Amino acid sequence: MPHWVLRALGMAVLHAAATVALAKIAVFQPGETTLARSAALALLVGAAALWSALDGWARRPDGGRTWFIAGLVAGPAAGVLGVVGKAVLVDRTGVSELGAALTSGAAFTALLVLVPAGLGLVVGSRLPRPGSDLDGDDGDGATGSAAAIGAAAAADTPGAAESPAAGSAAPTPAGRDERNETVLLAKPRPDRRPRPTPRLRARRGDRVAADGDDTGR
Predict the structure, then answer these.
(1) What is the mean pLDDT of residues 67-93?
(2) pTM
(3) 208: how many CB neighbours lie within 10 A of its CB?
């Protein structure tokens, strides 16, 4: 459901209720009409301004268009509801009152909705939303805490200083060549003779002993 429907119906019902209440006061208590009109006017203006200010504070999209359509629809709707309410609750007003209610009455009602709503949208859109600064601080604090924890874990890990940083590129070809050269240097040279094993030494000892016996004979 579009947002303007709820606002138009709410303003129409409120204006119609104020019209019926003023008509009833004018019939039964004629001396209090001035005070009642002032109070009703303040209530209607304040309701439109407060509602639109809340929309502006909530940063609702198309707030101006929403309240413009709501004001145009609330005028005729409030006129019809006001005539029906007075016919049922006050003095049995007839259908002849619909003409004035749908022309001058509807225009006055739309004006009472559009002007306060426009002011409310301007004021509400300039008000800071509570908690926005706190959310930003919390986000910075969480980021700092995560960085501190990561640094501490890296410091406690053996060989963390020599290990590459997270997200770094793969080892360069130069690094791989250096490691290969190190491995090659560690291999034994082909010109060096291998050392004799203990079993080979024992065999040589037996041969030398046998040669000594033959020589003695």
Answers:
(1) 89
(2) 0.58
(3) 9
